[in-house]
Design a protein that fits this description.
heterodimer, A: 257 residues, alpha+beta, 5 helices, B: 336 residues, 3-stranded antiparallel beta sheet, 28% strand
Chain lengths: 257, 336
Amino acid sequence: MSKKRLTALLVCIAVAIAGLGYLIYYYADLNNKSKIYNTLRQVVESETGSRQSQPSSGDLSSSPFAPAVSVDFAALQKKNRDIYAWIKIPDTVVDYPVAQSATDQSYYLNHTIEGKSGYPGSIYTENFNKKDFSDFNTIIYGHDMKNGSMFGSLNKYRDASYLNKHREILIETPSGERIYKIFAAVVYSNAYLPQKFDFSVESGRKAFLDSIFDNRDMNSQILKDISVGTDSKILTLSTCVGGQPNNRYLIEAVYTG
Amino acid sequence: MNRYKEKHPKRIIGIVAAVAVGIVVICAYFAVRAENRNSTVQITGNLPSGSLAVDSEGFGNTILYNGKKYQYKTNLKNILFLGIDKGESTVVKEIAARNGRSDVMILFTLDPAAKTSRMLEISRDTMMDIDVYDANDSFQFSGKMQLTMQYAFSSSARRGCWLAAKKISELLYGVPVDATVSLTMDGIAPVVDALGGVKITVPEDYTSVSPEFRKGAVLTLDGKQAFQYVHYRDISVTGSNDTRMERQMQFAKAFCREMSQKNSSAVIQKLQKAAKPYLQSDLDAESIQKLVQYQLDDEVLKVPGKTQQGASHDEYDVDDDALRRMVVEKFYVPVK
């Protein structure tokens, strides 16, 4: 074998091994960084007794007393003081701490809850939202992960039958539990909502609601069986749509008690 | 012998190298993809969350309906027909509704696989958010109005067609309108006469429209009669457009059949010539051929809903769930 050929062959093999190594590293790293969320869930579970026994049905009428999942925020905040709420959609994988950085709006877009850089990031809000959920529209962001974690399962809401079975969103805060009911799941433009709409005035709030209710798309669902107005307290779950960089997928829910 | 021996290891090296290159290419592809996912998380000014593209599968071209994945039948061709009543011009909040109304709206769907065509009728009274444009075609506001009004807020037939098609696509949850043909009402008589009349059987008693329209009468309508048949209605009666639409759909069906029977390039040319002064169309010759040749479905689809008496005129309220079901059934196929 000529020396040249041998060198070429060795280079090829080296690059192949490096490429394969990177792939393995990428997915192992992603897996590793995702573990923190299981750990935190266990923290929450062990400190509140069995969460599984809590009624998790989406039917509010059958559980007049809200399922109190008293999250130990003191324990969570020991791990990261930016954690200020916990979001759970019963019977789905959405079961995560919610964080807000006081200084860097996009920090948790690209950092896990324990501060590791990269995917899957965190479930988070920006600091234009108050941490007590008293705003008209509290916008919670999360990645649309291919493996379904974070907000990767929200795209199932494109199906009306799924939506009807998973309409309740629970938000735990240090001051108690808040229950929201989903009224829309829409394919939306990628407009930055707090910039596009002035939520501080009624006309801005109305314009936002109109833009949701006017949405007609086979992948959008609107339910008009619950009253939503400019005085409501709304939760927006915002995630992206792969292959559609100009669109985002929004879940809209209204505070019910 | 020596030469043969030499060849052999060379071949092996060649194969190993080829496999190695293959692996490099595959790895490079995945590595770049994984890298892209990370690098697309970019921060642009104060738009942190609007600009992220992620480790996301996306919707592809699929929708989810009752737990199943569906895909739009991309081979369909949807042709919107608009019958324009130039009639009187009205004013909405100081903006003139000036270009006439689309009183007849039929979406023809050509299915090249089955070589069939199908009609979907859309009520002029369908209540939607209509986009209002001023005399310079610049957008002013949107408001709940009858769908027939969308065409009116335009300054040309071409633009009116585009506005109506856009709105109807929105009504149908994004079903695309591939071409639009509009004809003003005064074009009906010359076109029907050019075809040599249209034969119909009067299905109900329509003597209120004209004495010869008795139930069961078999008539070959000439241009003037055809115009009466599709245009007349008593606006003092709630739902008068519904019975008129029945006549319009029946007439449209009969017209298409007549055209298919007389299918010759001479007739088509004669029709086109007669229609020209009243016509706006971006339909290609091939689709015209298909419209004439394909078998027209007997079943006429209708946007589900019901007519109610509004403050000043009839309003047609669409049953969104039923419409969505119809769109899935008629325009989508399950994905395996």
